[in-house]
Sequence to fold (138 residues):
Amino acid sequence: MARITFSGQQLLKAAKRFEKGLLDEVSDVVYETARLIQTHAKALAPVDDGSLRDSIEMKMLGKYNAIVTVGVHYAIYVEYGTGIYAEKGNGRKTPWTYYSTKLGRYVTTDGMKAQPFWGPAVDAGRDYFVKEMRRLGL
Fold:
């Protein structure tokens, strides 16, 4: 799980030098960052039947806390690859066979290459968040 955080001390500092609307602007940045991560992840997610893309959701948990989630169980395999193609060589080294209900037949595979969608989205969100917090003088 990737997190983008801003310490409570930094928010207290902002509150002490409270400028009209500053905390509202911080809340807006949190929302915009989460929405950016969600939008980027959806745009980068490979589409077969759309389940992965459709499972990417954003939710505000108060004014200064948001969460972006990916709901399908196989997202990690898409992000990091499988089998001989898995990142850092952590995948299975031998081919395997499984029954594909989609194809209606058995399929043998060595794995699937990584198709990163989450990491790049979080990186873009982090960059945006830091830039905006600096713009606000925090």
Remarks:
- The radius of gyration is 20 Å.
- Residues 22-44 form the longest helix (23 residues).
- The chain has five helices and four strands.
